[in-house]
Amino acid sequence: MELDTIAAVSTPMGEGAIAIVRLSGDEAIKISDTLFRGVGGKRLKDVPSHTIHYGQLIDPKTEEVAEEVMVSVMKGPKTFTKEDVVEINCHGGLVSVNRVLQLTLKAGARLAEPGEFTKRAFLNGRIDLSQAEAVMDLIRAKTDRAMNVALGQMEGRLSKLIQKLRQDILETLAHVEVNIDYPEYDDVEEMTHHVLLEKANHVRNEIEQLLRTSQQGKILREGLSTVIVGRPNVGKSSLLNSLVHENKAIVTDIPGTTRDVIEEYVNVRGVPLRLLDTAGIRETEDIVERIGVERSRQVLKEADLILLVLNYSDDLTIEDENIFKAVEGMDVIVIVNKTDLPQKINMDRVKELAKNYPLITTSLLEDVGVNELEEAISTLFFAGTIEASDMTYVSNSRHIALLNQALGSIEEALNGVESGVPIDIVQIDLTRTWELLGEIIGESVHESLIDQLFSQFCLGK
Ligand code: GDP
Ligand code: ZN
Question: For strand 18-24 and strand 85-91, is the pairing parallel, antiparallel, or unpaired?
């Protein structure tokens, strides 16, 4: 495959003391050499692979020194893209990074499209599609756990599982072929029926198992969108503050990947919460009163988790009761705050209202009960199961969609076998399942889909 040489900034714009401009392609070293002035006239084309060199970057037109740089030279195929890769480390300011990038473009590189480095790694056979997508997830990973899931996927854990399932289906299809080729033997038909049921059942169970991990995967990747509701003055802002203060946001720093901008995230015992920022919370303070139970239900429906706060030192009001109505059927944790003050709330009624939810009492002022709240959050979402380290999480929405379709067609196949549908119809469903699973690892994907996938990547990756 003949691919041109691409370049992009592969560190976040305007951040950090050092920025990297990365080049990949046949001409990467040659282009860099036209710009680089090493100590004692050193040329990059002569240096050993995987070494780093100090020097100056000059504008070849004017011979003016543009930047002080460190340049890494990595010759293919032992690189991320399998092509020759040069990384120019320069000062992190916006102006100097841009200057370096512009110089490489003037010298013959082409500005990389979003995700193009990863796309090349895929096209050059370095990684499969699910691994490529994992790179994107890594960039966005918000907690250590999310990172491990993405890393596991990149190492090909999901790919291996999918490949094994496809192999199972192929073997099943082979049995079907025998049946179609020798329909006159009764015992072949009986054996086929038996093998089909067993194999198809196995495949269905495995797909279901993978899908079960997807909800947790989504949470790990995107964070639980969490809304704190309650009447004014019950302690919502205080709750937000103690959650933020006690749980520092995780900053991922993986060599060779872009450090994405970190959002206001908190990691509560492995559960990433995406808390509405203070401004957002303020707006929802009187949400139920302002827009009514029905409308607020609509708004709250978007949330994965509701933290419903009540005031221990005040009577329950109709407003409190309305909030309970608005969050019915959702994942709710009820927090009775201000227990340091004399009790006025009717706890029997609270217990009645909260009978389906965990109920926590807190004094946020005195820092009491926050641990219990965190425990409740983690129990609610992990129920202990997520700790299993060898579990494969499916967290990518494209994978989930494909797995659901694959589940549909394998169930069609199973129903077919059970109700005695002609075997060649069953064969079609099995083949379809095989194809759908193949799309996850990019083995039966159309070019256009590939382009679409890679365009989602950050520029420079
Ligand atoms: P919000 O209006 O629901 O966001 O409530 P705030 O978090 O702004 O708190 C309202 C007031 O209650 C503030 O003065 C807080 O300091 C106070 N407060 C919050 N939690 C407690 C608590 O546990 N005990 C006491 N005594 N006061 C609290
Ligand atoms: Zn507030």
Answer: antiparallel
